[in-house]
Amino acid sequence: MSDVLLRAENVGIRFGGLQALEALNLTVHDKELCCIIGPNGAGKSTFLNVLTGTLRPTTGSVRFLGHDIGGLPLHRIARLGIARKFQIPSVFPSLSVEDNLKVARWGAPSPARPIGELLDLVALGNRAATLAGGLAHGQKQWLEIGMALAIEPRLLLLDEPTAGMTPQETMATAEMLLRLKGEFSIVAVEHDIRFVRALNCETLVLHQGRRLRSGPFHDIEADEMVRDVYLGRR
Amino acid sequence: MIARDRNWLLVFAVCAALAIVYPLFADGYQLTVIRDALIFGLFAASLDFFWGRTGILCFGHAAFFGIGGYIMALVTLNDAIPFGSLLGIAGAIAGAAFVAAIIGYFLFFGGIRGSYFTIVTLAMGVICQQAAISWSSVTGGDSGLIGIPPIEFDLGGTHVDLSQDLPSYIFVASIVAVVVLALWSISRGRWGTVLTAIQDNEVRAAALGHNAPLRLLVTFVLSAAIAGLAGALYVCMAGLVAPDLSGLLLSTEVIVWVAVGGRGTLLGPVLGAIAIQRAQQTISSFNPSLWPLLLGCVFVIIVFVLPDGILSIYARLKSLFKGGRQAQ
Predict the structure, then answer these.
(1) Is A171 found in the same domain as A110?
(2) Is B204–A91 a contact, with Cβ atoms under 8 angstroms apart?
(3) Of A119, A132, B217, B233, whose CB has the highest number of CB atoms within 10 Å?
(4) Same domain (yes/no): A106, A216
């Protein structure tokens, strides 16, 4: 657990007059799973955009394996080994499920997992020839996770992976992530407390762009302040 | 996917067979008409390779056709340059590719896409035509350059002379066949699949490690290079080059050919170019002012009724019958 994969230090970002993030720190170790939670507008997606290098922080820095990734082109960041699943399922609708995964593999510096294994991992083995645009919402989300896996990431960043999923699909996604946990680091931004509870991992709670609490999920869940924030009492 | 590839090859084979037997039934004049139409077909295929795979419309593709034409004319009209025909063709391809690379670099890496790209390339075409008119000491101004010699070169000991109708027809038809086949194999494989992905969602493709702007740029440059080749072939066959060859009208016509023939099929645009030019000659011969009106109507009808072009008629009929059977 000692080798640090991603280190965000003193990250702050300003959009005009709005301080969207302030003085955030996050360290992700190799093969670690962690979650970022918080109410709507807490800055979760903004923080994830900073972690993926899409947004350049106004203050502080994000280093991945020692490289500063702020402002690098997207494809270079992907090739360093950072995969990302977007909040809105963004698969390629006019390509088949199999071609979606192929395109993902072609982008990787050294793809290892064969297409068949990827299809099985995301439970789409019998839909390989289907156009991705015709998949159900939950299946699109899984396909996108499969595409992220295809590039053999060191770090997988998930932006609300269970958005719009049924409770059963949410639990299946949590199991999928727990199975993958030992292979690479995963950072998930989530809204759905049941999902985070199922993952039961290190959790960072954001509120109004700042760190509210961080620690193992069972401590977080018991915290009075976190409950207040989530219930809108503060 | 496999069935679609097989159908494409079948249509290609039928077209190639027709092109081979055509000289047996046609006189010299008819051969030159089809030959010139084939060159414009190659030009249409070049636009389709870019527009059909990326979904980005270039509204100034005639600029590359014209650049290729002028370079070919200037090289072959200069007696001091040896191997004029071959160097001219190489120069035409390189010149068009170079201009596309410069313009494309700023547009693609600057994040210009969609209609903005179309508008900028529209301006590019107008600028090229104006330059051809105004730079009269080199380009011959409005009247252009005349007396461009036919293509002539030595290939492995045999002397190739394309001043006659039949050899020039065979030469052009072979080039069109080879280029269309090559473009098709590029666009159905990995290159084309990634381009489709970029068209669907460029940010996603980039987040998977694909350098989208670079891939779009290379496709654009390749497309322009082939347009330049078509321009070079055309001026040698016609014997003259004029500012119209890089003008807005030709840029528009090539879009109509591609749309009518079927965007993304590569073969459809070639057939569309031939069919529309044949129709143009027939109709203009009895009433010249009727043609633009008819062309406009045909274009509108195609866009509404057959948005995938004339090649899609068969597939549409098939799905119609299939749908009928399922309903029963």
Answers:
(1) no
(2) yes
(3) B233
(4) no
Q: A2: pLDDT confidence band, cut at 50, 70 and 90?
A: low
User: Tokens 């219930």 belong to which residue?
Assistant: A231
How far away is chain A from the Cα of B206, in angstroms, using its nearest Cα? Answer: 5
- Same domain as A77, residue A3: yes
Sheet architecture: strand order including A67-68? A18-29, A4-15, A59-64, A67-68
Domain of residue A121, residue span: 83-152
Q: Are residues A219 and A201 in the same domain?
A: yes
Whether residues A222 and A110 share a domain: the answer is no
Average pLDDT, chain A: 87
H or E stretch covering B37: helix B28-54
The answer to whether the CB atoms of A104 and B193 lie below 8 A apart is: no
Of B1, B201, B209, which has the smallest distance from its Cβ to A151's Cβ?
A: B209
CATH architecture of B2-327: Orthogonal Bundle (1.10)
A74, A92, A108 member nearest B197 (Cβ): A92
Q: What are phi and psi of B133, to 5 degrees?
A: -75, -45
According to DSSP, the β-strands at B158-161 and B152-155 are antiparallel
> What values do phi and psi take at A216, rounded to 5?
-65, 150
Query: How many independent structural domains does chain A possess?
Result: 2
Q: Please check whether residues A207 and A229 belong to one and the same domain.
A: yes
Q: What is the DSSP string of B218-237?
A: HHHHHHHHHHHHHHHHHHHH
* Contact between A103 and B205 using a beta-carbon 8 Å cutoff: yes
CA distance A102 to chain B (A): 9
Residues A77 and A165 in one domain: yes
Q: Is residue A59 located within the same domain as residue A164? A: yes
B287 touches chain A (CB under 8 A): no
Chain A contacts of B110, Cβ < 8 Å? none
| B residues 122-161 closer than 8 Å to A (CB) | none
Give the residue-averaged pLDDT of B27-55. 94
ipTM over 0.90: no
pLDDT in tens, A120-131: 888 888 889 899
| Domain edges within chain B | 2-327
Q: Is the pLDDT of residue B1 over 60?
A: no
Q: Regarding predicted confidence, which is higher, A231 or A225? A: A225
Chain centroid to CA A80: how far?
Answer: 16
What is the per-residue pLDDT across A161-220, written as a single tens digit (0 to 9) for each? 888 888 888 888 888 888 888 888 999 998 888 888 888 888 999 888 888 888 888 888
User: Could you tell me the CATH number of the domain that includes residue A2?
Assistant: 3.40.50.300
Q: How far apart are the first and last CA of chain B?
A: 28
Q: Is the CB of B212 inside 8 Å of chain A's CB atoms?
A: yes
